[in-house]
Amino acid sequence: MNIVLIGYRACGKTAIGRLLSERLNWPFLDTDVLIEQRCGMTIRDIFADRAEEAFREMERRIIAEVAQLDKHILSTGGGAVLNEDNARALKQRGLLIWLTASPETIW
Which superfamily, per CATH, for 2-106? Predict the structure, then answer.
């Protein structure tokens, strides 16, 4: 079983993920960071150079991979669970927790 943090960007998924990782002594993985590491470019650059469709395909592959792990804290990009395949994969072995924040906090 994994703990999967979902929610809009800047709502605290990374900060809370790191705290949970320390508390539970489980590894923390951020799917956006994994995408950037594997592509050797920022998400902003991926969107600019390859378009959203290419980013979403990379995101889908990364999520399919990390969803198979056990006892991990996973943080996804803001739109990751809008894809049914991503949501299904994450739910199979994870407890999804939707983090929210006020627009003022996100800004």
Answer: P-loop containing nucleotide triphosphate hydrolases (3.40.50.300)
